[in-house]
Design goal:
Number of domains: 2
Order of helices and strands: EEHEEEEHHHH
Largest sheet: 6 strands, antiparallel
Radius of gyration: 19 Å
Number of helices: 5
CATH class of the largest domain: Mainly Beta
Oligomer: single chain
Helix content: 25-40%
Length: 195
């Protein structure tokens, strides 16, 4: 059984996936304090997925990546990176003596080196090309593909909570739908010309 960790917590209605970079605007005093602790002490914190669908009480383990802008008011724009997923055992109103919440969590220790088969890989390359994203011969893992798709919070939750062997078919279905939408968008551009 995974070790229980006590970490700072930031409940939000988002579910970052491993490797994903997420912009956040920090303005509440308690989360300004969390940012200060993350910056000075180089600590991880959790973004608990605050959503009705979250029956498994999961969240994302985050690390401060960079500070983009500091405002005179004390607000800050930052970028954080998701490093793992966790299950929350207990959410506490405060973390130790701090203003911000904390929680007892169990890390998943996700193996993000699961790579797609040739069908998913080729379709993903087609998707990147249709979106005019610089094409290269990189090898993408399943989490990188999921991060690139415009999955809503519920689909992100489904992706994480299904078994490993079902993740690739799940992404394949979502990718086919995204490609279909891009093709329809292109067709509409071809059919309608603005003056």
């Amino acid at each position: 059984m995974a070790e229980v960790l006590h970490i700072p917590m930031f409940p939000l209605a988002i579910l970052p996936l491993p490797g994903e970079l997420v912009p956040l605007h920090i303005f509440e005093p308690r989360y300004r304090q969390l940012l200060q602790d993350a910056e000075i002490n180089d600590i991880h914190f959790g973004v608990y997925f605050s959503h009705d669908v979250n029956e498994q009480k999961i969240g994302s383990l985050m690390k401060l990546e960079s500070i983009i802008k500091r405002y005179p008011s004390g607000e800050t724009d930052i970028i954080v990176r998701c490093e793992d997923i966790f299950n929350m055992d207990l959410l506490l109103r405060t973390y130790k003596t701090k203003l911000y919440p904390g929680g007892n969590v169990r890390l998943w220790n996700l193996m993000v080196d699961t790579y797609p088969g040739p069908v998913l890989y080729d379709l993903f390359k087609q998707y990147l090309k249709q979106r005019s994203i610089l094409e290269n011969d990189s090898v993408f893992n399943l989490f990188q593909i999921a991060n690139e798709l415009t999955l809503d919070a519920v689909d992100r939750y489904k992706f994480l909570t299904i078994t490993n062997d079902r993740r690739e078919p799940f992404l394949l279905s979502r990718l086919k739908f995204q490609i279909f939408l891009l093709e329809r968008e292109q067709k509409s551009k071809d059919n309608y010309h603005l003056n």
